Amino acid sequence: MQGDDFAYELSFVPLPHVERTHRIERHGELALALRNEDLDKLDGALLDVRAGGLAMQNPNRPASPTFDSGSSGTLEGSLAEQVAQVITQQVNPAIASHGGAAELAGVEGRDVYLRLLGGCQGCGLVSVTLRQGIEQILRRVIPDLGEIIDVTDHQAGTNPHYESEKK
Prior knowledge:
2 helices, three-stranded mixed β-sheet, two-stranded antiparallel sheet, elongated, single chain
């Protein structure tokens, strides 16, 4: 998850090991394996390999997160219940692709305490996920939140999506 842009993953895989759920496109000597489910999101995108690295220029943007709480469109219950609803219905589906999840650890006043799990626990990009992803979703749905505080024991993470260099 990365703010208003798609997040891109890059890995080097021998062509015989590419899954059947991917389409292989060849660009000179470079073969790209693209997930079939993502092809429409890459329509019109350009992968620039000339600048001494890789830069993705994609005119497409992910759909803005929406909250579906039935026909009324409003959250019900205490602040803790509202935050838990948003985590369950919007945040966790968004971070599940990286093996991550979030849970509400507590609420004090308007401040929210979150615990991140799975691929998010110990991930080197957890602050990006928290500030540009989770916090943006929560504030869009519940605008008058106070601080959003991560209380995760990241040192105990056993399977982070991206290894932290600090470990």
